[in-house]
Amino acid sequence: MKNQVVGLLWFRNLTEYSEYRKLFTDTHTLPEDYSEWLLDAEKVIQIYENEEVNIFKVEAEPIDFRCWCILNGQSIDSEGRIAFTNAKAQECALKSGWSL
Predict the structure, then answer these.
(1) What is the rounded CA–CA span in Å between residue 44 and residue 38?
(2) Is residue 100 part of a domain?
(3) Percentage of the chain exceeding pLDDT 90
(4) What is the pLDDT of residue 23?
(5) Does pLDDT of 2 surpass 70?
(6) Three-state secondary structure along 36-87?
(7) Which domain of life does this protein belong to (predicted)?
(8) Which tens digits make up the pLDDT trace of 62-97?
(9) Residue-number span of the structural domain to which 71 is assigned
(10) pTM for the whole thing?
(11) What sign has the CA pseudo-torsion 68, 73, 76, 81?
(12) Has residue 40 been placed in a domain?
């Protein structure tokens, strides 16, 4: 049974991806093109699934992500994305009654 939980910040469309790219302080680490990001994200999901890790696509408005980072002392970059998505994935798993 899968018991490890990982979150992945999921951009629902090109517009949202563009809004997030304006917000992030490390845009140089992300593909400029949404379709390229989507292909990369799907590969990451496949890797986690092959290793039997539960992966949650975490959807959030850019302002909600920004506020969470500020309130939790996180930077608005890859470290903040990891902290945010993993926190949200853990919350979701616990609400679903999973034992972690």
Answers:
(1) 10
(2) no
(3) 80
(4) 96
(5) no
(6) HHHHHHHHHHHHHHHCCCEEEEECCCHHHHHHHHHHCCCCCCHHHHHHHHHH
(7) Bacteria
(8) 999 999 999 999 999 999 999 999 999 999 888 877
(9) 5-95
(10) 0.86
(11) negative
(12) yes
